[in-house]
User: What shape does this take?
Amino acid sequence: MSALTTNAEHKKNKKKRELTLKYWKPWSQFWNISGIVIILLALVENISVPSQEDVNNKPYQIFLIVYFLYLSFTTVWGWIFRQGHLRAYSGHFSQLNVSLGILLIVQDLLTEKFSILAQPFFVSFAQIIEQITTDHKLLWDSTVSSTVLWLVSFIVGALIGVVFGLLMGRYRQFNYWAFPYLKVIGIIPAAAWMPLTLVIFPTSYMSEIFLIAFAVWFPVAFMTIGGVQGISSEYFESAKTLGFSEWRIMWKIVIPGSLPSMFIGIFTALGLSFTMLVISEMMGAKVGLGWYINWARGVGNYTQVYAAIVIMAVLFSLIFVISNKFQTYFLRWREQNNH
Amino acid sequence: MVQLAIRNVSRTLQDNNGQPLEILKDINFQASSGEFISIIGPSGCGKTTLLRLISGLDTPEKGDVTVDGNKVTAPNVSRGYVFQHGSLFPWETIEENISSGLKALNGRNYDKELVQHYIELMGLKGFESSYPHQVSGGMAQRAALARSIVMKPKLLLLDEPMGALDAFTRADVQEVIHQVWQQTKTTMVLVTHDIDEAIYLSTRIIIMTPRPGEIKEIVTNPLDFPRNRTSTEFMDLRKIIQDKLNFY
Ligand SMILES: Nc1ncnc2c1ncn2[C@@H]1O[C@H](COP(=O)(O)OP(=O)(O)OP(=O)(O)O)[C@@H](O)[C@H]1O
Ligand SMILES: [Mg+2]
Assistant: This one.
């Protein structure tokens, strides 16, 4: 019973320690309030300084107000409750919020207010947000179709990579026959296949899936092979003395043992897959964020290009965060190297 | 009744330069069911190699190993093996580790009470869902022991399971091994560096020479259980074995 309680306490303390390790900047009333003031200042500046450009500032102002309310809320919350995740998080990033506020003011003055950086190649953040609101339906559809395309292709590519990697890492025969081909074919940039895939595949959608999956499978397969080969032979030998079947060794030793390395491959593939997603959508597609950028370029509306870039930043960051969560969960058995 | 028989076993491996390196030379001994054999000898004399040959993880190029009259050719669940460094699966919790062999054997309907029994006996209650890196070295070693014992092997091979432990934890684990041996009557072969440990636990002690490892002598342990580490008989036996271990 006492062991149980110590274990629970231990877990709680560990959570606390992890929180202070991750969000290491201490809570500061000064920086929190500075953040709020700067965002308020950005709002006042945008309203009071007359604009040189034809722009609807409403959406930008609403954005600033929401930002302001969010910062006020977290500050008050942290000030009242004195502990917890939200306080650690908002305290840690309070200085960053101040810099972001300054950046917003500076860019607003440089572009929209004094036209030092002029349209059409440089646009204010207010212009971008306005563009996003006016194009929201098209952008939403583009985002959804890009996300679906990415997800399908990434899963296909990663699965093929994992299967090849596991087989090549585990079985010498398979490695003998497949590894030379993997090395030679995998090293080719997926983009080089594009002219061919566009004519070989019956639909452009299939060619896009192929290109993205192709960019993904190689790093995943390569890192999985290394992961399997790096598993200590003691685990395989233990498994044998415990009567594991080959299938069970694969499932209980090879897969979990290669997972850390596999995830390195997956994260490498993530960046490549985003690149390939945009490129392939720019070339053949009739939907998606890549298509939207290409189309905007065609009509010379660079604000739309910026709008798509902002959306990509949000979308890809989100995917990255989710992937990170997966990694943390699947590698929860690993010792955290806190330094 | 002879259970384990090792006849004229030799093993030669290759060193880093590809030169043949004779590790075990002409090993002969037999063990009866229920015996507790300790193997003691200087580092590098081939103790681990010998244990691996008995388990079937390795095969000798000369001679053979038989268990219950059957020649050993591959590892088998009837011969448990606890590795020198524990080798719990780091991606499984303590409980998953302990039950992993049972699950491989019986699927989901494995004997959960048996697992619970050994979790308690090994003092691992409250740490079932911890991962190996979260528990102490002694706990991890006891879990590795439990993982092999729940398989109810006929022969349990222990490669310095207490080698990396401090004196207190070491005495704990020794006690557990002794208990398990008395309760289950499993034949045990223990490799150790520790003369006291060998005397405390075993019925016979095999003393090996430096490489190439040969059996120098097999000492029968006359002491009755429970054994007292500070008794004169214990100390006398220790002195005898110490003298036999002086090779230079
Ligand atoms: N796979 C191998 N290939 C070549 N040499 C090996 C191999 N495994 C062990 N050896 C060598 O064989 C000799 C005996 O090794 P072994 O591990 O059996 O010794 P040991 O008695 O268990 O030593 P320790 O007490 O240090 O564990 C050592 O010199 C070692 O370097
Ligand atoms: Mg050894």
